[in-house]
């Protein structure tokens, strides 16, 4: 059995809620139940950047990369959508999305340049870029 292409990242912390590989395949975005999203180097497992500010302690909340992997986007248990600059790790946008209820999933459509968010309020919001 070949293990070519497999990478094992050891992560000793809270449960993982989502993962996404970067477009170049060199890193993995990892969300977990400690209200932290981490960008991990796929080659050596080192932490490249972390993203905080959102709430994620109790629910499975998914995060994603967008705009050519320049932005990290995540829902939050406070009903907001957060966006961080990938390299600096700073919050660049906070949107009220689901009326104080958990925003549990986000997705980015590169062709249409739109974000979508879904929440426990049973609503899907589609966000256009300015």
What does this structure look like?
- The chain has 130 residues and is mainly beta.
- The chain contains no helices and 11 strands.
- The strands form 3 sheets. The chain has a 4-stranded antiparallel beta sheet, with no helix packed on it.
- The model has no long low-confidence stretch (mean pLDDT 88).
Task: Give a brief description.
The chain has strands at residues 16-21, 27-32, 36-41, 47-51, 63-66, 71-74, 80-85, 91-96, 103-109, 114-119, 124-128. By secondary structure, the chain is mostly beta strands.
Report the mean per-residue pLDDT as an integer.
Answer: 88
Strand order of the largest sheet: 1-2-3-4
Number of helices: 0
Oligomer type: single chain
Helix/strand/pairing category:
mainly beta
Radius of gyration: 15 Å
Low-confidence stretches: none
**Main beta sheet, described?**
4 strands, antiparallel
- Could you spell the SSE succession in H and E letters? EEEEEEEEEEE
Give the termini separation. Answer: 49 Å
Q: What's the shape?
A: globular
Tell me the number of strands: 11
Query: Considering DSSP H and I runs of 4 or more, what fraction of the residues is helical?
Result: under 10%
Which percent range describes the beta-strand content?
Answer: over 45%
Annotation keywords:
single chain, 130 residues, mainly beta, four-stranded antiparallel beta sheet
What topology emerges from the helices and strands here?
Blueprint (H helix, E strand, L loop, with lengths): L15 E6 L5 E6 L3 E6 L5 E5 L11 E4 L4 E4 L5 E6 L5 E6 L6 E7 L4 E6 L4 E5 L2
Antiparallel strand pairs: 1-2, 2-3, 3-4, 5-6, 6-7, 7-8, 9-10, 10-11
């Amino acid at each position: 059995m070949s293990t070519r292409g497999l990478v094992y990242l050891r992560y000793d912390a809270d449960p993982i809620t989502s993962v996404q590989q970067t477009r170049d395949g060199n890193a993995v975005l990892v969300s977990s139940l400690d209200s932290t999203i981490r960008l991990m180097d796929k080659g050596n497992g080192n932490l490249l950047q972390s993203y905080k500010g959102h709430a994620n302690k109790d629910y499975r909340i998914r995060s994603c990369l967008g705009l050519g992997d320049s932005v990290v986007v995540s829902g939050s248990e406070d009903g907001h959508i957060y966006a961080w600059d990938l390299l600096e790790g700073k919050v660049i946008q906070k949107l009220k999305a689901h009326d104080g209820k958990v925003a549990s999933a986000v997705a980015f459509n590169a062709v249409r340049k739109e974000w979508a968010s879904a929440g426990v309020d049973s609503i899907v919001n589609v966000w256009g870029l300015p």
